[in-house]
Amino acid sequence: MVRYLCGLACVSRSGFYAWLKAAPKRKQREEQDRADLEHITSIFNSKNQKAGIRQIKMVLENEHGLVLNLKKIVRLMRKEGLKSKIRKANPYKRLGKATQEHQTCPNVLNRNFDQGKPGKVFLTDMTYLQYGNGQVAYLSCVKDGSTNEILAHNLSTTLGMDIVYQTMSRLRQVHPIMPESILHSDQGFHYTNPDFQKNIRNLGIIQSMSRKGNCWDNAPMEAFFGTLKDEVNHRECKNLKELTSNIDRFISYYNQKRYQWGLGKMSPVQYRTHLLAA
């Protein structure tokens, strides 16, 4: 009868008995998959369904002590129907136009963002955030090119020069300026302003700028703003105070707890400590 039924199913008798013998292992594997899937689902939901497989893997290793390969995470997420929300491209809208007295600087950095030394490369830029009833705030940040740490930030409701001056002032308070450090930005009117460029030279900083209309020349900074807008529900903030609190909380989390694949699965602060120790 077994031989007859195996023939109907187009399987060998030895294959059928091997399948029966492996039943306990299959059951054990399925139970382990269910336990792993619970952890994955918990992390996925805690990140507002925006966590990718690499982010989930790093959180599992650093906070849950679980080491899963990427293929297994993909398989379990696909089985459960978990799909990360993908950020749509949002072209940068220029908020001002440089006058003739504003001079651009050459692209000294040339996309060499990571030079293996904290404080060697500073990346800066600003973005806008909508909140309340259609109100707009502007966020200026400085990011370390080697560690991806956000060293200084400033949130303002206006686009005056104070937004970049205060950002640089906060940078000087929290981080020593190395000789011949590089400050890289786009060609926005804040960074081409003659007074701002003079202040940067007085600090002993080399100023570098992206090529016109080339977002890739400052890609790490653009990537951070994209991540921030993904994970901070800025449109749901009712006032500037609430928005500021959420931004401060996210940047602290980003620096301290958000593990990054390109940093050896460490957070920016952990990676900075690692570089300084090395």
UniProtKB/TrEMBL annotation:
InterPro entries named among the record's database cross-references: HTH-like_dom, Integrase_cat-core, RNaseH-like_sf, RNaseH_sf, Transpos_IS3, Transposase_IS3/IS150/IS904
Domain Integrase catalytic span(s) in chain numbering: 114-276
Pfam families assigned to the protein according to its UniProt record, in alphabetical order: HTH_21, rve, rve_2
Signal peptide start-end: none
Stored Gene3D superfamilies: Ribonuclease H-like superfamily/Ribonuclease H (3.30.420.10)
Regions annotated as coiled coil: none
Domain of life, per lineage: Bacteria
Role: Involved in the transposition of the insertion sequence.
Record-linked NCBIfam families: transpos_IS3 (NF033516)
Protein name (Swiss-Prot/TrEMBL): Transposase
Species: Pontibacillus salipaludis
